[in-house]
Amino acid sequence: MPEKILSKASAEDLPATVKITLPEKNEFYMMIYFIGYSILAIGIGIFFFGPDEVTYNVLLGPTFEQILLANGLTVATLGLAICGLAGALKKKSLENYLIATMAKTIDALDFDDEDVPEGYELSMVWLDECTFRVAFVEKDEVLDAMLGSAS
After folding, report:
1. What's the pLDDT score for residue 1?
2. Cα 82 to Cα 24, 33, 38, 48, 136, distances in angstroms
3. Cβ neighbour number for residue 64 with a 10 Å cutoff
4. pLDDT (tens digit per residue) in 30-55
5. What number of other Cβ atoms are within 10 A of residue 72's Cβ?
6. The predicted structure's pLDDT at residue 151
7. Helices 72-108 and 29-49: crossing angle, nearest 10°?
């Protein structure tokens, strides 16, 4: 008989297969990467293919376009800085996603350390991204499995 998939497992249900709903991933950083790489490409393009000299009216000063044409590497540096910001946002987004996934995993287990029988440990094996199998296994089996995989 196939094992029932649970959304919440207590100590009496083990061994059991548990399925959790994953939190949403925040991928806002992808748009920031796109903006940063676009600005970087524009800056490099201005540096290599832009004019050799820029002239402007002394009384009126340079226009925004003339300032960009005179500072291609500065524009490229701004693009790199934005890409660095996107990298930091990506790291924080992935940390938050992993913390939320771990919280949902812990919430799916409806027992604590005192419910684990003497001489046993909790074993969790992920079957796919949102399904895992949880059971109590003897401590000796865990040690043997760890030593067996090391050799």
Report:
1. 43
2. 24, 7, 10, 21, 48
3. 7
4. 999 999 999 999 999 999 999 989 99
5. 19
6. 52
7. 160
Does residue 61 come out as left (phi exceeding 0), alpha (psi in the -120 to 50 range) or beta?
left
Q: Residue 92 and residue 129: Cα distance in Å, rounded?
A: 20
Tokens of 70: 């005179």
Report the distance separating Cα 68 and Cα 60, nearest Å. Answer: 16
For 9, which DSSP code? B
Q: Going along the chain, which residue ranges are E strands? A: 5-6, 16-19, 120-126, 131-138
| Closest C-alpha among 115, 50, 104, 110 to residue 76 | 50
Q: Which residues of the chain have pLDDT under 50?
A: 1
Report the alpha-carbon distance of residue 88 to residue 1 in Å, rounded: 48
Rounded Cα distance between 28 and 84, Å, is 14
**131 DSSP 8-state letter:** E
